[in-house]
């Protein structure tokens, strides 16, 4: 089931999420809903707080070229174990901040540990876009948005645009 994506500024997007302690069928269904919502948007990542759920759960799939085989990942309690000193700059966007993009510098390579939908411990090293995406989504679980990396003036400008967008949507 497709879920509604919260638009910044929404206080739920700035909250630190609680760890998932008991992997239930309800949480697995939530992960499926999040994947459906992400693909429909379309996006390459989505974090639970973006749909108003304050649990440490993210989904991502950076296989976005036509003909690529999808690789949906569901991560409960994802955690960056190590990050490279080398950095990458990507123009990031966010489903909670529609049509706004900015260059963000992050570690080029990260090693991440998480629990999969079956409760198994997983660990993988991500590079390039996958690395940027997983870091962006984990930031959401810690109440951080990509615009928090920007200079205050640019961040305020984007926030004002989002407030205007929300007012316009409320009138429809």
Give me some keywords for this one.
172 residues, alpha+beta, Peptide Deformylase, 5-stranded antiparallel beta sheet, two-stranded antiparallel sheet, 29% helix
Walk me through what this model shows.
By secondary structure, this protein is α+β, with helices and mostly antiparallel strands. The chain has one domain: Peptide deformylase (Peptide Deformylase, Alpha-Beta Complex). Helix content is 29%, strand content 30%. It contains 3 helices and 7 strands. The strands form 2 sheets. The chain has a 5-stranded antiparallel β-sheet. The chain has a two-stranded antiparallel ribbon with strand order 4-5. β4 and β5 form a beta hairpin. The mean pLDDT is 96.
Condensed summary:
With 172 residues, the chain is of the alpha+beta class. It has helices spanning 25-40, 128-141, 152-171; strands at residues 45-47, 57-60, 73-83, 87-94, 97-107, 109-115, 121-127. It is globular.
Give the uncertain stretches in residue-range form: none
What's the order of the H and E elements? HEEEEEEEHH
Question: Strands of the biggest beta sheet: in what spatial order?
Answer: 1-2-3-6-7
What coarse outline follows from CA principal-axis ratios? globular
- Distance N terminus to C terminus? 23 Å
Count of discrete structural domains: 1
Q: What characterizes the major β-sheet?
A: 5 strands, antiparallel
The helix/strand class is alpha+beta
Helix content: 25-40%
Task: Give the radius of gyration.
Answer: 16 Å
Strand percentage lies at 25-35%
Mean pLDDT: 96
Tell me the number of helical segments per DSSP (H or I, 4 or more residues long): 3
Q: Using the 3D structure, state the CATH architecture.
A: Alpha-Beta Complex
Number of strands: 7
- CATH T-level topology: Peptide Deformylase
For CATH, the homologous superfamily is named as Peptide deformylase
The level-1 CATH class: Alpha Beta
């Amino acid at each position: 089931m497709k879920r509604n994506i919260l638009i910044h500024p929404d206080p739920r997007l700035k909250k630190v999420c609680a760890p998932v302690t008991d992997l239930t069928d309800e949480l697995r269904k939530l992960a499926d809903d999040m994947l459906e919502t992400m693909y429909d948007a379309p996006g390459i990542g989505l974090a639970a707080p973006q749909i108003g759920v304050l649990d440490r759960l993210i989904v991502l799939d950076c296989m976005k070229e036509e003909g690529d085989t999808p690789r949906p990942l569901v991560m409960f309690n994802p955690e960056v174990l190590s990050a490279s000193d080398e950095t990458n700059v990507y123009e990031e966007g966010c489903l909670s901040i529609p049509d706004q993009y900015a260059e963000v510098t992050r570690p080029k390579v990260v090693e991440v540990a998480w629990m999969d939908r079956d409760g198994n411990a997983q660990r993988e090293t991500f590079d390039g876009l996958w690395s940027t995406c997983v870091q962006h989504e984990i930031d959401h679980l810690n109440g951080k948005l990509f615009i928090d990396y920007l200079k205050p003036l640019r961040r305020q400008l984007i926030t004002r645009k989002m407030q205007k967008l929300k007012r316009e949507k409320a009138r429809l």
